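Long-time lurker, first post. I've been practising inverse folding by hand and with some scripts of my own, and I keep getting stuck on stretches where the structure tokens seem ambiguous. Below is the full token string for one chain I'm working on. Before anyone asks, I'm not after the true native sequence, just a reasonable design that respects the backbone. If someone could post their per-position residues I'd love to compare against what I wrote down in my notebook.
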């Protein structure tokens, strides 16, 4: 068991929040929620990469999934709309879209009504890979979440959404 020392930080509006600082002499990295989240992400990402390679769609990277799924739902979105739909920061979109364009998945099309805006459009290859990519995603997620009840998965999603929202608030 890890000994925890408590540090209180007071906030004018919300009252007192408590943050756990582990006693490093007894701290186990494999019991740290951040470490577990990071490791799970790395392992799942690795499994997806292997699955994409085995399925012959090695140009697809796990980091492309938010954009691909969004475009499979509604092709031709403006960059800002796509970022919002994919849950990504607009500032990270340029590099991501550059890589996806280089890999032959998308192309950019000028907006005839707004010279500053671009529409992101799937290439034929980007459309053709939908089935194998979704099959790999489904197989991988079923594998890594086997023996985990749907109610537990819903709790995981709820907690991760809170973490994401907290992190977004903290970075502003």
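-- Answer (accepted) --
I ran through it position by position. Result:
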């Amino acid at each position: 068991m890890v000994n925890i020392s408590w540090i209180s930080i007071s906030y004018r509006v919300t009252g007192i929040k408590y943050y756990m600082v582990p006693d490093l002499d007894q701290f186990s990295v494999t019991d740290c929620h951040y470490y577990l989240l990071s490791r799970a992400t790395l392992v799942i990402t690795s499994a997806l990469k292997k699955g994409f390679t085995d399925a012959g769609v090695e140009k697809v990277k796990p980091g492309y999934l938010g954009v691909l799924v969004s475009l499979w739902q509604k092709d031709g979105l403006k960059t800002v709309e796509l970022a919002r739909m994919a849950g990504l920061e607009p500032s990270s979109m340029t590099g991501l879209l550059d890589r996806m364009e280089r890999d032959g998945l998308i192309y950019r099309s000028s907006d005839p009504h707004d010279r500053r805006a671009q529409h992101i459009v799937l290439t034929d290859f980007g459309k053709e890979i939908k089935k194998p990519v979704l099959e790999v995603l489904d197989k991988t997620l079923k594998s890594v979440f086997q023996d985990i009840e749907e109610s537990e998965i819903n709790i995981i999603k709820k907690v991760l959404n809170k973490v994401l929202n907290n992190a977004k608030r903290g970075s502003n």
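A couple of notes from the structure itself: The longest helix spans residues 33-54. Confidence is low (pLDDT under 50) at residues 1-16. Happy to go over any region you disagree with.
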